Amino acid sequence: MAFIADAALGTGISELLKVAIAVAKQTLAFKTNLKSLVKTLQSVKPIFHEIEKLHKVLDRPQDETDRFIEQLRSGVELVDKCSTIPCWNKYKQYIYSNKLVKLDKDVVKFFQIEAQGLAAVNSLRSVVGIQDSNDKLDLILKYLNISDSGFSFWGSVPGVPDGVVGFERPLKELKEMLLRDEEKVKVVSAPGGCGKTTLVKMLCHDPDIENIFGKNILVVTISKSANITVIVEKIFKCRMPDNKLPDFQNDDDAINHLEYLLKQIGPSPILLVLDDVWPNWVSLIDDLTFSLPNYKILVTSRFSFQRFEPVYNLKILNDKDAMTLFRRCAFPKDGNSKIPEDLVEKTVKGCKGFPLALTVVGRSLYGHPEVTWRLKQRKWSDGKSILDTERELLDCLQTSLDALDEMNESSIKDCCLDLGSFPEDQRIPATTLLDMWAELYNLDDKDMDSFSNLVELAFRNLVNLFCTSHKGNEVDGYCNENYVMQHDLIRDLTIHQSNREPIEQRKRLIIEITGNDFPKWWTEGAGLPIHARLLSISTDKNFSSSWLPLKLPAAEVVILNCSSGLYTIPQFIGSMDKLKVLIVTNYGSSFSKLDNFYCLGSLPILRRIRLERVSLSSLSTSSIELVNLQKITFTMCEIGEAFENGTMDLPRIFPNLLELEIDCCDDLMKLHVGICNVVSLKKISITYCNELSSLPEEIGRLRNLEVLRLNSCTKLLELPESIGNLQKLTVLDISDCLSISNLPRTVGELCALKKFHMRGCQGLADLHKLPSSVKDLTLLEKVICDEEASHLWKTYRSHLKNLVVEEVKEDAFESLMRVISPIQHC
């Protein structure tokens, strides 16, 4: 049996702790009690050693201490006895469990009494002249921070900088979110430079928050390289910045010390602010989420920790607030300035609403003459960005990009840098990015891995990812209603990063052409090869489509962003032998008529084409053959003429096509029968085509078709009877096809069907029954439908053993949003 070798307080605590840890490993019956006792002992151990030393210096009576040492000796015997009690003897387990609880409380009680006694001695020490013990006694008193009202613990909250603008509403919203009782952990998330820390400082100094939490507000900045012990030490230093800290044995010991101390503060409310938390410290939040009443943790981060919902996403400043903040930084307090207003507005616009950018640029221009302002504007207009001139701002944002290097998946950073290829302030369809990344990077499950990268970038606040409708289901491979928006300054950062290399060596060549003004390097060195894998060219409505030659022998993806009514695909694209993906997007106010489409026929490995807001009529008369094309997407295009022409030989043009997507093409009234002869097709997605009224009866020829989506084709009357021939079809989606009033009797012949989406099919919901053949859909796993339509499947439950009918309920608002979703989507 373990025993206490001498009558020493510190030794007694150490021996009891040692035995408690050992026995906790041997028995399950008392594990909870022993764990609590170990935590208590670990918390008080370093303080008891100091108390023991002070007793000797102060020559205090030892009666109470001696009696407590006897309790510790008995405690060792008690813990040791627990290891011998049989698991079947529940009565003894109950008795000894209560004894352990009492021992735990006795240790805490003695600790508090001794601490209060030492506080009284401290008030008299100047009289008796004891100076040698000052530092040690200060350590204990500051560790405990004993006051007349008991325990309190507080750290100095950083002050709020002068001239904060535009945070009135975020402060109100964040305060309301913090004071809700549902969750202990609340997160403030935004990219670097948006003012997260400033907002939280304002919150901590808010009168309502101060009245609730008093001095129990602890603010700690978390560095990427810190460890748990260091972080706990920072919390302790909030109260004792100039003194020796407790000697933490390890990370667990440090957390135990902190938990014990916070328990002494309670039930007073406590607010712990963890500022600038990175993903590698998400476990720290768990470690510090103690089961204490009135205890809150507020996290600020560049990352969106969705599992700690709610997350408050701080937005950039609006134009009015941005101007106010900039003026406060750039001009004297009286606001007088000789700088022209239009020049001020241009400068503010270049800061993209980021508070840090407005502050840095404003201060850099303070007191400078107009010529300095114009020089900065000229640099920005010559292809340089604000990041080229403001190093402090670049350093702040660059850390978010550099953090991507730490991930094992190298494609994450590449995906982020690719986003600079798209115009500012435009939403990017997620499927566009998936098409690019699937071909650019070696991903196992191309679409799903690509979407995972997109989710990761959204988590890191490098993009905003949103869905325009309830039907976005990336797990089913349907991402057509997911979109991405870039933060303007983050976009500038990706372009800045891509442009660091010389033109010839860049992995991404991003070109913006105003009118017909080509970059100087292009006009002077058009014959030199450039080895970029990705080419992005943006032109405005005044571009004449007169191209200069360009050599990109390594290009795998080409993105053409246009705005003019007539747009000619550059002839030099026809010589890009490694081109896999072509994306043409028109951002103008009307359709752009696409010319020179036939040049794509010379590309040997072109696999994906995506066209948006273009008019394509030449397809029917072209002799083009896209032999290796696997996927083609038309979004908001004029394709009716091309896809209704009966003479067009689609199997010849697309001999190996696997996927066809047609989205929001309002002039498509019927589907070209030739599509039914492209037997290689595995996926057909026709969505939001409101004029489409029928499908060819020959659709049953598509023997390899696996997915058929017909979302929101509101005038589609019926499905052809030949649909029963689609023996490989696993997903059928007719959501919001309002005019379909019955299913073909052959639907039961879809022997591979697993998922059937039929939400919003009011015509079907009004039926009294489904075709009896649906009982033969033995592999059907899920039907997604409205509550009104779910009764149609009750008759067949006994036949369809694996079927789950998912009823999707919607309120009036959701119903309204579903009606107008085609407008939002397109």
UniProtKB/TrEMBL annotation:
rRNA-binding among keywords: no
SUPFAM superfamilies: L domain-like, P-loop containing nucleoside triphosphate hydrolases
Lineage: superkingdom: Eukaryota
InterPro entries: LRR_dom_sf, LRR_R13L4/SHOC2-like, NB-ARC, P-loop_NTPase, Powdery_mildew-R_dom, WH-like_DNA-bd_sf
A Pfam entry, by short name: RPW8
Keyword Ribonucleoprotein: no
Keywords tagged on the record: Plant defense, Repeat
One example of a Gene Ontology biological process annotation: defense response
RPW8 domain span: 1-149
MF annotations from Gene Ontology: ADP binding
Family statement drawn from the similarity comment of this UniProt entry: Belongs to the disease resistance NB-LRR family.
Name by which UniProt lists this protein: RPW8 domain-containing protein
Organism in which the protein naturally occurs: Daucus carota subsp. sativus
